[in-house]
UniProtKB/TrEMBL annotation:
This is Glutaredoxin family protein. It comes from the Bacteria. InterPro entries: Glutaredoxin-like, Glutaredoxin-like_YDR286C, Thioredoxin-like_sf. Gene3D superfamilies: Glutaredoxin.
Length: 95
C-alpha cells in the first residue's frame, strides 16, 4: 500500500471540534479528579467536546476498565489511563 501524501492526510484529519474525548472513571477517585482537571483544561482551550462516563453506572465499562481508571478515550479509542499528560492529549487531538 502506498504512503498517503501529506496533503491527503491533512484533508482527512479531523479538526479539534470534530473530536470527542471520553473520560471514564468513578466518583471519589482522586486520579479521576486529576484527570478531569486536565481534560477540562485541554478540551476547553481547544474547543473539543468531552464527556464523563461513570463505571459504577455501566457494567460493560466496569468490566472493561475497572483496573485502569481513569481512562481517556479519543474518538472511542483508548488514549491513556491512570495519568493524563496534557501535552500528549493536545497532540492526539491535533493529529
Amino acid at each position: 500500500m502506498a504512503d498517503m501524501s501529506p496533503l491527503f492526510r491533512r484533508a482527512t484529519a479531523k479538526s479539534p471540534g470534530d473530536r470527542l474525548v471520553t473520560l471514564i472513571g468513578k466518583p471519589d477517585c482522586h486520579l479521576c479528579d486529576d484527570a478531569q482537571s486536565v481534560v477540562e483544561r485541554v478540551c476547553g482551550e481547544m474547543g473539543v467536546p468531552w464527556e464523563w462516563r461513570d463505571i459504577t453506572q455501566d457494567a460493560q465499562l466496569h468490566d472493561q476498565y475497572w483496573e485502569q481508571i481513569p481512562v481517556v478515550l479519543v474518538d472511542g479509542a483508548q488514549h491513556t489511563f491512570w495519568r493524563v499528560n496534557e501535552d500528549r492529549l493536545r497532540k492526539a487531538l491535533t493529529e
